[in-house]
Design goal:
about 240 residues, mainly beta, Jelly Rolls, 3 domains, 8-stranded mixed sheet, 6-stranded mixed sheet, 23 strands
Length: about 240
């Protein structure tokens, strides 16, 4: 049998022939290929520091490049089973087309759905029980406090240390829910003026609890433009 070894090999390159025999190239030993005996690899050329060409199949470990169902990359066993491309510019990571994460050509990402219709389209049940919601502390300065950039945390806390405080309309709003903790300092009696983007029942913001160190909690829901809220007073 004729074995066509790769041209211009680098020291340490590995080549596996069609009959399953693996060879290693050694420049330090006189630029020779040395047989390494039988192997699980078949029909692969691997060059150290370069890209892999051809097919890689490890029958014992269930690993494949460019030979899996729908083409792509395949790992068997109990872990990740597929990284494959069932359509042009589409990548699926998971155990099947509908049991994993799919990235399509339009930039949509789907979890457990074969046809995502949004940047994140989730089908079936999911849990965020082990995740924390991002939160932030707003800083009071000179009769105002840092604008609420909701992209930095949908839960925010501010301690009022001035007589009147202005809260401008929150920025980077998305459709969703938000929480604001408002805490009086040791003096108490601090006030808030809400920006026009905040909407309350009857167009009147509820009065804050005036006691020193009091905490009022505002719960908001946003349509992406305005933020609609109610207050739970004097939480303690």
């Amino acid at each position: 049998m004729t074995i066509n070894l790769p041209n211009n090999p680098n020291d340490g390159d590995v080549f596996t022939s069609n009959n399953g025999v693996q060879y290693t190239f050694s420049a330090s030993s006189g630029n020779v290929w040395t047989s390494r005996g039988s192997t699980l690899l078949a029909n692969v050329v691997y060059k150290t520091g370069n890209t892999m060409t051809g097919n890689l199949v490890m029958s014992g470990a269930n690993i494949a490049f460019a030979t899996a169902t729908n083409s792509g990359v395949y790992w068997g066993g109990t872990g990740l089973s597929f990284i494959h491309s069932p359509a042009a510019n589409t990548i699926v990571i998971g155990t099947s087309l509908t049991e994993g994460i799919r990235f399509d050509a339009s930039g949509n990402v789907g979890i457990s759905t074969s046809s995502p219709i949004a940047k994140l389209d989730v089908s079936g049940s999911f849990s965020v029980a082990k995740a924390n919601v991002l939160q932030q502390t707003l800083t009071y300065t000179a009769n105002a406090f840092t604008n609420w950039d909701t992209s930095l945390g949908q839960v925010a806390t501010v301690t009022l240390t001035g007589t009147t405080t202005t809260l401008n309309t929150a920025t980077n709003l998305r459709v969703g829910t938000y929480i604001l903790h408002v805490i009086q300092d040791s003096v108490g009696g601090r006030l808030i003026t809400f920006g026009s983007g905040y909407k309350f029942t009857g167009a009147f913001a509820p009065p804050l609890t005036a006691n020193a160190n009091a905490r009022d909690v505002f719960s908001f829901i946003s349509d992406g433009t305005n933020i609609y809220g109610v207050m739970v007073p004097d939480v303690r």
